[in-house]
Design goal:
single chain, about 300 residues, alpha/beta, Rossmann fold, 2 domains
Length: about 300
């Protein structure tokens, strides 16, 4: 390789980081619609497109659980996701309101404020979650006349996903993707969920083959993670809790083959039903962590 030239690993890794970098966010003006997002996935998807929502719910928890794309300081707080402040929404005079459909009983009242558009990128019918998320974003772009922003974002995302299988220097052994609850239980993420679509593109098999909820997870006891002793454990979120449990050598957790062999990857929070922005975040965090483990 030419001295100073970027390596294949650096180039492919940069594709994911580029896809995660949203355009400079814009509020209303210059043809940008004023959109209120009534759920986190809608808010994150708009922010990823560079179209910052004028308001969204539970902003502190969004920052803790969704994390990125970050919402701008000027985004207004709407209160609880289940009980948004309708008076505040009306005062904001939005051009459109975006919802995942969970607030269907309120849609008639919301439609009197601004046109309501449903946005649900999670597939409940067995489709690949990344393909479903891209299709949902395409529909959103047409509905809100954001075709240019959506096309640019999806092109960057597709490049990152296409490059995932070619990433060098990562361990592609089967993996359990979990979120620890306590010293005896965890959520395990199942093959019908968003994380599965990312694993597929990386060429990593999901060590858990059973079914789960519609959103792709299941609460199980930790001892069930010993069924595939060769597998890696990838834990998402609650990193201080996991570190404390490992340090205390809690019996069930410490007995797992992956723990004894040191095959544990700890990742920060990723919203497990968060559509394309969450899929890209998971891809970025996981590949960075796996490549770091291979760095001498």
């Amino acid at each position: 390789m030419t001295p100073g030239a970027p390596s294949r690993r650096m180039v492919l890794g940069g594709l994911v980081a580029t896809a995660l970098t949203a355009p400079v966010p814009a509020f209303a003006g210059a043809g940008v619609p004023r959109i209120v997002a009534l759920d986190w996935v809608s808010a994150a998807s708009l922010a990823a497109l560079g179209v910052m929502p004028v308001a969204a719910p539970e902003l502190p928890r969004y920052a803790q659980i969704v994390v990125e794309p970050a919402l701008a300081p000027g985004v207004q707080e709407l209160g609880l996701r289940a009980e948004p402040n309708l008076e505040r929404i009306a005062r904001l005079r939005p051009d459109a309101i975006l919802t995942d459909g969970e607030l269907a009983p309120l849609e008639a009242r919301l439609n009197r404020i601004a046109p309501v558009h449903r946005f649900q990128p999670h597939a409940f019918d067995g489709r690949d979650q990344i393909a479903a998320g891209m299709a949902a974003l395409d529909g959103l772009g047409r509905a809100l006349k954001l075709e240019r922003q959506v096309n640019n974002y999806l092109a960057r995302a597709q490049t990152a996903f296409d490059g995932a299988a070619r990433l060098p220097d990562i361990d592609r052994r089967p993996a359990y993707v979990i979120s620890l609850i306590d010293g005896r239980r965890c959520l395990v993420f199942t093959p019908n969920g968003l994380f599965q679509a990312v694993l597929d593109r990386l060429g990593i098999a999901n060590a858990w083959t059973g079914t789960g909820s519609a959103f792709g997870h299941l609460t199980v006891t930790l001892d069930q993670l010993a069924a595939r002793p060769e597998a890696r454990l990838i834990n998402i979120g609650h990193v201080p809790l996991v570190r404390a449990a490992l340090a205390m050598r809690q019996p069930v957790l410490s007995s797992l083959p992956a723990i004894r062999a040191g095959r544990v990857t700890l990742l920060p929070e990723v919203l497990f039903y968060g559509g394309i922005p969450a899929a890209l975040r998971f891809l970025h965090l996981l590949t960075d962590a796996l490549r770091a483990e291979h760095t001498p």
